[in-house]
Amino acid sequence: MKLDKPMRDGMIRFFIRLAAVSLLATIAHDLLLHRLPFLRGSGHMVGGALHFAIMLLFSAPIVLVHIRHMRESREKEREAYERLKGSETLYKRLVETMSDAVLIHADGVVVYANPATFRMVGADREEQLLGCPVLDFVPDSFAESIRERMHRLYRGETLPATELQYVRLDGSCQDMHLADTPIEWKGRPAGIAVVRNVTDRNRTRQAYERIQSQLSNLIDNVDVGLWSVDQVENRVLFASSAVERLYGTPVEQLVAQRGKWLEFIHPDDVDRVLAVQPELEKGRTVRHQYRLVAGDTGDIRHVEDRTIPVLDECGRVTRLDGVIIDITDRVEFERKLERAAYRDELTGLWNRRAFHDRLQDEIREAERLGRKLAVVYMDLDKFKKINDSLGHYAGDRFLREATDRLTVALGDKDVAARMGGDEFTAVLREAEDRGAIVETLERMRRLFREPYKLDGYDFYVGVSMGVSIYPDDSEDGTNLLNYADSALLFAKKTRGGYRFFEKTMSLSAVEGVILETDLRKALEQGEFELHYQPQYEVRGAGKLVGAEALIRWNHPQLGQIPPAKFIPLAEETGLIEPIGEWVIREVCLRLNEWKAKGWALPIAANLSVSQFRSGTLVDRIRGILDETGADPGLLELEITESMAMDAGQAYTVLHELSRLGVQISIDDFGTGYSSMAYLNKFPIHRLKIDRSFIDGIDRNGDNAAIVSAIATLGHHLNMNIVAEGVETREQVELLNRIGCDVAQGYYFSKPLPLDRFEALAGKAAWDK
């Protein structure tokens, strides 16, 4: 019988102890015989019995201890066996339930495989896998490396994990991650391999890398710069090539030296850029514009930068991501638009439209600072004589010279404008006392009185000025301008003088009260009527394609009052909303009448700011459409650019109107600050180019270029282009070449009463 090592060791210890006991028994036997002589004579039997008894006495405890020890060893061995058996069961269960394939191979043949291995290779019977060569499941391209790997495993080498391919029974190749280690299998060198199918992972990674490559290529080839900055480590994480082009410096330098970024910002804009930092630290996204000075060329570029803070779980800003766009071309285009719409072409000063806006800005600033303003209305004496005697060319030179003198007299701190002809206006900021105002007025008088050299002659021209004071005379810009104009009339009587406004100079306040009272009655008494200005097709047959509805007030005593006089009053008194609702209802009723006649002519109606911001506009329009049964597709509502720029409200209102089927147009386009990209967010169907661009379009190349640019961009955004204020055949022909779709103006027809428009509506074309 073959004994295991623990039993063998126990038996050896037992016999050693037994030998020791025997020796001790012998010694004890001899001592007893020596000490007890009477035992000697008892013979060998007594001596032997005594020796056995002594030996039994010594060995009994040892035997008992050994038996107990053997019993405990057997129990421990049984427990160890049970634990080993449990561990083996556990490990077997783990291996059997693993999603990764586990297989054992010896001599290059599969000797064990868990269920995942069968699934991975597509086998459903043991004979398809067990006993098969490992190389049967490896593509030829990887066979040699697998063969070498198995040989090294059988030599007991530890190998690093690797990735290669395996072949399923259906012949398809799959990517796998292989980790294997040497073991012994039934006394033979073997290897155990853990295999994971990574085909999907690799495909995902390849798709990601492909997308990354495409995205990187896209980023590198668009004019939108992307950047990212680590706020914690104060370093640039990423900057696209467009950023490099804008800064005129290699990206590597920008990444290496974040602090140098400020050096590329225009000195006048650095404070503005730094001013947004507190907002970023609060986690707020910031969009701002500034100028960059390119490091390689020194060129100045206008950019729009959108910076997005990225917060950690504690709400701290850890990273800034940004998008930077070169808007230089857009800024230049908007400047041209602004100059054409807000600048006087001859003198370069603000024009009448712009002056009204600037005056309102100045009033708001004065109110904030608690200071006074002076509004000055000027008229050049004897200008008509220069025009009549020397001609318009000399008159234009004179006006430019007068403008230069006005600019010198005012300096940079005050606002000046040409209102038309020889009339100028100014806003004086230093107006806390009348003495400071008079000092400026006297300076202007002296400069204007100096001789003007025109065609070899000296001309002496004076200036008359009227002055009104904010807030002493009024807090309203229009009233201040009217009061200054009234004071000017009195100043002109003295030629070369100036007068401050006094209440007795103007009856406009009284007239305003009377008009307001009558305006409240006008709607109830049916004093309003609509005139219709025809709109014609510019290209093609030149057909009548629509009309714009314009309100007129037939006052019983004063006759017809122009809209320019009563519309501001209606806005001021809050009557504009019921008046505007009346206009839309009348238009819808007219659409129904015309539809019955077979005329599918759309009608445009203007929306006021008050209507647009009322919060009830959409419901009111819906109610009128339901009430009248009008076709919403023939109703066109016109808004101004400034109304559209109120992004939050405009987006909601315009999209709700569009869902009703109503057409939307931007009126007087080009006079505000909207961009085509911004308008693209709204459902705009038409752009109506302001008449200031059409006037002189056949003589002014800049105006023609601007109109052409607007038409091109508008068509690109699927918008119809309408030209307002067309007055000559030459303008029509040029608009046709430019690509305008529709035109209206006095060349075709002035606004007509309903009966005259309907008489015209049957015509299919106008005489080209």
TrEMBL record:
TM ranges: 44-67
SMART domains: EAL (SM00052), GGDEF (SM00267), PAC (SM00086), PAS (SM00091)
Domain EAL: 512-765
Residue span, PAS domain: 87-157, 211-284
Domain PAC residue range list: 286-339
A Pfam short name: PAS
GO process terms (BP): regulation of DNA-templated transcription
Segments forming domain GGDEF: 371-503
Organism superkingdom: Bacteria
Swiss-Prot/TrEMBL keywords: Membrane, Transmembrane, Transmembrane helix
PANTHER family attached to this UniProt entry: BIOFILM ARCHITECTURE MAINTENANCE PROTEIN MBAA, DIGUANYLATE CYCLASE DGCP
Protein name: Diguanylate cyclase
Organism phylogeny: Bacteria, Bacillati, Bacillota, Bacilli, Bacillales
